[in-house]
Design a protein that fits this description.
heterodimer; A: mainly alpha; 9 helices; 0% strand; B: alpha/beta; Rossmann fold; six-stranded mixed beta sheet; four-stranded antiparallel beta sheet; ATP hydrolysis activity (chain B)
């Protein structure tokens, strides 16, 4: 049985209080700005309830595209980062380049994606992958590069094959950092996708958002934002649970999600 | 006399860096009999760890050879187990899973390796900690896990690189005593590299004293300490005699080394 310390209780309390504070702040802004510039939290929730069925298609579309993008970004990012990290030469050669690419405001490159892919699902996936692939690749590369030498010596002393070494030593050793990288990659894939949907798409939550912006319907805009925040929180929470499980094993700091 | 289990013959190791040759080890020769406990001591920088890596097949000598039962060691092999100085337990595996690791890599069936690992965990005094993760253990306990992981594969010879180097002297001697008991029970042959004179004197049947770089065998001291030994041996005259011999030989080497360093620096200053 888990026994919560008073400090942990305070953490949990703080975590619940933040959304409450945000809602209060939201209400205050609404009272200050008034309609039609702003909608109240209650109006937005009512709007969400009334239109939820109509928006479910967009939500499904966004989540589906997001998962495809994330799978592509994470698998290719992990594989590339892992193999680059194994070689000192490639790490030294490519890491400044990757860090440079990572720091580019990627939205500036959107016209190029638009020219290549047009208003297609592939275009949105490509832009989303372009956002998410760099953090996971860089983190995976660094984690692999810094696997302690002693583990590699040990692998050599047990005459392990590359596959054995990768499965039994390298992957478990980089796992804690890998999960953090996957979480970051997911967030950035989501960002890239919403941007792509906002700029050039006929479907998805990003498209809905822009649509209601042009109609100047703040209650609908905020209701869509609630949808987006829900998706972001749901998946981030799953990643945090995974991260905590990994970190508990190796005795690193605990997030105490429970 | 029976054929030695390990024979080190005329072993030399030269490193080449920036067109400069560094002779780390020169003409090292000694033998290890089955069941013997040998320690290698020497001033820091004399090539102890290099020698250990060559003995275990992780590095190759420039000239000379290491033979086990007459067969040259050309790489890591199952007959040689290694315990490293650094923290080497896997933090993502429990104590039991860490101990099982070597057997698992040998392709042993799970039921068999689990049983062997349980017995070994008990032998190293970690019963009750099977499901603990390394971060929950002390440094000494973690090193016992590493020793258990090596011994459970029953290698012909166990090579240890200052396994208790990171621990305080008191824990080091207690664990050393425990190691002797484990070695007696498993009938393992051990080559231990250490810089602790007391540890070498307490544990060894034979002590190889290396000179300052390039490392050469300066003395070979045979222990007269009766067996079985434990911490009470620390107060015997035999123990005092061995530590005295070791101390004087190492002091001599350290002074030689210092003299060389002083001469080098005076040359630099004089230029």
């Amino acid at each position: 049985m888990k026994i919560k310390t008073s400090q942990q209780k305070w953490y949990a309390f703080g975590r619940y209080m933040v959304p409450v504070a945000i809602i209060i702040l939201w209400e205050i802004i609404y009272l200050m700005l008034g309609e039609p510039a702003m909608a109240s939290p209650w109006q937005s929730v009512v709007e969400l309830k009334e239109n939820a069925n109509r928006w479910l298609g967009d939500m499904g579309n966004t989540v589906f595209t997001l998962l495809i993008s994330f799978i592509i970004a994470s698998i290719s990012g992990v594989i590339l980062g892992f193999f680059i990290g194994l070689s000192a030469f490639w790490t030294k050669t490519l890491s400044p380049l990757l860090l440079g690419l990572y720091s580019i405001p990627k939205v500036t490159l959107y016209p190029i994606f638009l020219l290549i892919f047009g208003l297609t699902l592939q275009g949105r996936v490509a832009f989303s992958v372009f956002h998410g692939i760099f953090p996971i690749m860089i983190i995976c590369m660094e984690a692999t590069r810094t696997v302690p030498d002693i583990y590699l010596k040990l692998a050599k002393s047990y005459r392990m094959s590359f596959m054995q070494k990768a499965r039994q030593i390298l992957i478990p050793a980089i796992m804690p950092q890998l999960v953090v990288g996957l979480r970051m990659s997911f967030s950035l894939c989501f960002l890239g996708l919403i941007l792509a949907e906002m700029f050039a798409s006929y479907e998805g939550l990003g498209h809905r958002l822009v649509h209601y912006m042009s109609l100047n319907q703040p209650s609908s805009i905020l209701a869509i934002i609630i949808f987006i925040v829900f998706i972001a929180f749901f998946f981030t929470f799953l990643f945090l649970i995974w991260q905590e499980k990994n970190e508990q094993k190796i005795g690193k700091r605990q997030i105490n999600l429970s | 006399m029976a054929e030695p289990l390990m024979k080190v013959e005329n072993l030399t190791k030269v490193y080449n860096s920036d067109a400069k040759e560094v002779v780390a080890l020169k003409n090292i020769e000694f033998t290890v009999q089955k069941g013997e406990f040998i320690s290698i001591v020497g001033p820091s920088g004399c090539g102890k760890t290099t020698l250990l890596e060559i003995l275990s097949g992780l590095r190759l000598p420039t000239t000379g050879s290491v033979k086990i039962k007459g067969k040259a060691v050309t790489g890591p092999q199952r007959s040689i187990g290694i315990v490293f100085q650094e923290e080497s337990t896997f933090p993502w595996r429990t104590v039991l899973e860490n101990v099982e690791f070597g057997l698992q890599m040998q392709g042993m069936p799970k039921a068999e390796y689990r049983d062997k690992a349980h017995k070994m965990v008990e032998l190293v005094g970690l019963k009750g900690f099977e499901n603990s993760y390394p971060f929950e253990l002390s440094g000494g306990m973690r090193q016992r896990v590493a020793i258990a992981r090596t011994l459970v594969t029953q290698p012909e010879i166990v090579v240890m690189d200052e396994p208790f180097g990171a621990l305080d002297e008191q824990t080091r001697l207690i664990l050393g005593g425990e190691l002797l008991k484990i070695v007696e029970q498993t009938k393992a042959t051990v080559v231990l590299v250490t810089h602790s004179i007391q540890e070498a004197a307490l544990l060894s049947d034979k002590i190889v004293v290396l000179s300052a770089r390039p490392g050469k065998v300066k003395y070979l001291i045979k222990s007269t300490l009766p067996k079985p030994r434990d911490a009470t041996a620390l107060t015997t005259p035999e123990f005092a005699e061995i530590t005295q011999k070791l101390w004087s030989s190492l002091e001599e080497e350290s002074l030689t080394k210092r003299h060389d360093v002083d001469n080098d620096s005076s040359r630099v200053v004089g230029q």
